[in-house]
Specification:
The chain is an alpha/beta fold and about 400 residues long. The protein is built from 18 helices and 8 strands.
Length: about 400
């Protein structure tokens, strides 16, 4: 007889145990609004404009979409939600969601200090196992794009192509890139000292190669004894399953732990449009089935190599999460193995998060924070995602209604 608990993502009692009746009502209203494509299209255009124009809508935003998908405006505000989630064995992944800036060295240095500040804070809290970093917050994007182009035209392994390409940069850009590496290394060093996991976010395919190479070097330096630095693989790209396997081979050869967050992806339309514009093969899978197959195979591969891999299953897909659970069971691996974790975005897929947590899995909510007006770009993407992902909004609404009915009974 199996000693593993039965997990059902249809269990709404566990899914919404952390929400009051009033909070459920608000969530239902918000997702119902997101089901209206025209309303979302209008809102995602008007809200950023209204914020820039100085219209007094911050209060409305904070009480609705911000409350659903963000953790607060400051680190201190996130602690309230973090402590609440801790009661249900759910951790958080802190993400300073402010975007933009003046694209200057001073701005990048400031961003690095902010990331270090987040790590220091996370280390003082009992249920913040991870924080999130974007390399584009530390580097000029056009420099990343130039390096990526050089690397794609080079031969050899990822690291060999990277080193050769850096050498081709003019001296001023070599020094600029050196400062990027120094910023990221300082953050990684601090994360290691504070024992806080650091997840490097995925970027677009035309700037990914130098990011991947840089993160691999950081893993080689800091993931010797335990997984601290995590890269991100977007499995809607047809080359990422092979990438995951190649990284494992490199980690096994070099003697470090390859840590990877598995996502489906976030830039599909952008990628396809650019590939068409510049007349090259799109990196995106031919269809959703291919993406699902590669994602699930990546999950299975990682769990079968936990001696050298740490994996974060970052997915809102119920089947993919269950694939991970069943693979752990099939190999007699504890659901709370230190090299296996799960994550979902705050405000979405609570049925996955809280049922996994109830079963004893290591699971966290991705918790963006920052001033309302500066988190708007992130919030607009959440609204668009819930509208564009087939069945996502309908699933959220049906689960909420199911729980409301259960509570009434």
């Amino acid at each position: 007889m199996s000693t593993y608990p039965e997990i059902s993502f249809d269990n709404t009692e566990y899914a919404f145990q952390y929400k009051t009746n009033e909070e459920l009502k608000s969530a239902n209203f918000l997702f119902s609004a997101m089901a209206n494509r025209l309303l979302v299209k209008l809102g995602t255009r008007m809200v950023p404009w209204a914020i820039k124009a100085g219209l007094p809508i911050n209060g409305i935003i904070k009480k609705t979409i911000f409350k659903q998908f963000a953790g607060g405006e400051t680190l201190e505000e996130t602690s309230v939600l973090a402590k609440h989630l801790a009661k249900y064995n759910v951790g958080i992944i802190l993400d300073y969601a402010v975007e933009g800036g003046d694209d200057s060295e001073a701005e990048y240095d400031h961003a690095a200090e902010e990331f270090i500040k987040v790590i220091s804070y996370a280390a003082t809290q009992p249920n913040i196992p991870f924080m999130s970093v974007k390399v584009t917050g530390l580097s000029r994007e056009t420099l990343l794009e130039k390096l990526d182009k050089l690397m794609k035209n080079a031969q050899g392994s990822l690291i060999k192509r990277y080193l050769n390409s850096v050498e081709q940069l003019p001296e001023d850009e070599k020094q600029e890139w050196k400062r990027v590496k120094t910023r990221l290394s300082r953050i990684c060093q601090h994360a290691t000292e504070k024992n806080v996991g650091m997840m490097i976010d995925a970027e677009e395919s035309w700037i990914t190669d130098p990011v991947d190479a840089l993160v691999m070097l950081m893993m080689d330096a800091y993931n010797r004894e335990r997984p601290v630095i995590f890269n991100t693989a977007q499995l809607y790209r047809h080359d990422r399953l092979e990438f995951v396997k190649d990284c494992y081979e490199a980690a096994a050869e070099r003697g470090f732990i390859f840590a990877i967050k598995l996502v489906r992806g976030a830039y599909m339309e952008k990628e396809r449009n650019r590939a068409k514009e510049y007349n090259y093969l799109s990196p995106i899978q031919t269809d959703k089935t291919a993406t699902d197959n590669d994602y699930n195979e990546a999950v299975t591969f990682c769990i079968r190599h936990l001696d050298r891999i740490a994996v974060n299953v970052s997915s809102h897909n119920e089947n993919s999460n269950m694939v991970a659970v069943k693979e752990l069971e099939a190999n007699n691996i504890p659901l709370n193995h230190p090299h296996v974790s799960f994550s979902q975005l705050l405000g979405m897929s609570d049925n996955i998060t809280f049922n996994l947590a109830h079963a004893g899995c290591n699971v966290s909510k991705y918790l963006p924070f920052g001033p309302v007006k500066e988190v708007i770009p992130y919030l607009m993407r959440r609204a668009q995602e819930n509208t564009s992902v087939e069945g996502q909004t309908g699933r959220e609404i049906s689960l909420i209604k199911k729980e409301v009915k259960r509570r009434k009974l």
